[in-house]
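Retro notes (design track)

What went well: tokenization of the new backbones is finally stable.
What didn't: we kept losing track of which sequence belonged to which structure.
Fix going forward: every design gets posted as structure first, then sequence, in one message. First example under the new rule, 446 residues:
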């Protein structure tokens, strides 16, 4: 049962009531009490796209502006919108492609599909379906790869702008080891990215990420140009892949024999630092993890993809070791990943952690999917924790979304257990509603 409706709010003010969960800090680095805040009967007030109040309903109800009726989601969990720190919108069509590990999978499926994005109409259709799917899954921000074609990045940003979503993305840079139809050059990739930055970075809620695919598909000249572009455009991000698959790592060693290892290739070209997000990092060495920590470089942990492609097991407790913690967010890595849902991704992250003898608790898992992702993107002051002043992107989770879920959540004893059950059993059906900039953007019942 839901009472009130978003239509009763004024155009710029929304209030929602339910069980509120949010983060003030990183629970890998501090106590649960210091990191995590839970209001059993909570209220969120949003004005002009931002949160103006968050806390206990009784304490805050007098602050609801006249004429605004809170939308009540009894028993539902209100969390910051999920943040997907690594996804390829242009691979939406090839999710669940059978039978290969990384390099064969790229050649057989990915590079074939990405050629279709030469067609702007196709790109716009996929971008629209992609944003629908993000919102159906409670994801309000994504760091996403487009294809090599600049138009494919335009299609993504146009669609995100239409929905007022905080989107981060970029056209991929590739000037070798891919089909000719997918290659740019060091110069054209630089120029096209520069124009896209001018057109989209900081426009509305869009941010640009300079996106070399991974070391094997860029020449040293292209990586140099990417580092130069990043230096010239402070505030943009860098988005690439690292140490996902052992065959890939050997290939990088043979292509860059003068470098100390895979991470050192990016380090050498000035591609590490705050705002750099590297997908996977499954096989990073201790020294490489230290280097990520000291430079502020983030890793996107993509468990459904790592299992699907047989890439290996990411050791989240090593990555978040308080002696040298890295920034870590969760990524779906569609189309190697198998679900758009960050709940399903938490589920697989839990299982991967179990296989490495680490019990990933629900407070930490939800952190990785929200504030951890915001920290990875350098946006922790903007999104990810439902603090007043933050942008009002949030998700409403239904603990009774299915009969099986309802019978299980009926017997939970505390909020941690409820979040754990939601993470392990939840998916798109669990997302009752998604709000973007304080406005209803997806309603499961609509
Ligand atoms: N490494 C380089 N490109 C890709 C990609 O598209 N997906 C994954 N999972 N890894 C990559
Ligand atoms: Zn990827």
């Amino acid at each position: 049962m839901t009472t009130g409706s978003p239509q009763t709010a004024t155009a710029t003010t929304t209030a929602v009531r339910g069980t509120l969960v949010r983060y003030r800090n990183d629970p890998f680095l501090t106590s649960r009490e210091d990191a995590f805040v839970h209001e059993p009967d909570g209220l969120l007030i949003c004005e002009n796209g931002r949160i103006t109040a968050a806390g206990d309903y009784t304490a805050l109800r007098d602050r609801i502006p006249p004429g605004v009726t809170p939308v009540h989601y009894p028993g539902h969990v209100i969390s910051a919108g999920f943040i997907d720190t690594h996804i390829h919108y242009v691979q939406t069509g090839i999710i669940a492609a059978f039978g290969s590990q990384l390099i064969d999978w790229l050649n057989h499926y990915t590079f074939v599909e990405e050629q279709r994005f030469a067609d702007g109409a196709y790109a716009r259709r996929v971008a629209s379906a992609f944003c629908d799917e993000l919102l159906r899954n409670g994801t309000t921000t994504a760091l996403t790869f487009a294809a090599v074609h600049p138009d494919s990045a335009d299609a993504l940003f146009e669609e995100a702008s239409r929905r007022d979503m905080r989107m981060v993305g970029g056209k991929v840079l590739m000037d070798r080891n891919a089909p000719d139809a997918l290659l740019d050059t060091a110069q054209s990739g630089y120029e096209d990215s520069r124009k896209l930055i001018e057109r989209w970075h900081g426009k509305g809620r869009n941010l640009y990420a300079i996106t070399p695919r991974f070391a094997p598909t860029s020449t040293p000249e292209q990586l140099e140009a990417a580092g130069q572009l990043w230096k010239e455009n402070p505030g943009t991000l860098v988005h690439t892949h690292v140490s996902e698959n052992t065959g890939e790592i050997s290939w990088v060693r043979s292509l860059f024999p003068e470098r100390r290892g895979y991470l050192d290739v990016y380090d050498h070209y000035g591609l590490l630092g705050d705002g750099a997000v590297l997908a996977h990092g499954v096989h990073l060495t201790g020294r490489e993890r230290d280097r990520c920590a000291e430079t502020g470089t983030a890793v996107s942990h993509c468990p459904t993809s790592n299992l699907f492609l047989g890439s290996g097991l990411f050791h989240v407790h090593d990555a978040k070791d308080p002696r040298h913690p890295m920034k870590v967010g969760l990524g779906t890595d569609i189309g190697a990943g198998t679900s758009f849902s960050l709940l399903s991704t938490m589920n697989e992250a839990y299982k991967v952690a179990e296989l490495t003898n680490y019990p990933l608790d629900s407070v930490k898992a939800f952190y990785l999917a929200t504030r951890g992702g915001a920290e990875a993107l350098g946006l922790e002051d903007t999104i990810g924790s439902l603090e007043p002043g933050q942008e009002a992107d949030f998700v409403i989770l239904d603990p009774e979304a299915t009969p099986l879920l309802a019978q299980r959540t009926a017997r939970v004893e505390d909020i941690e257990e409820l979040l754990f059950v939601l993470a392990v059993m939840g998916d798109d059906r669990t997302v009752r509603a998604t709000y973007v900039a304080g406005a209803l953007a997806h309603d499961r019942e609509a």
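Added context from the reviewer: The longest strand covers residues 36-47.
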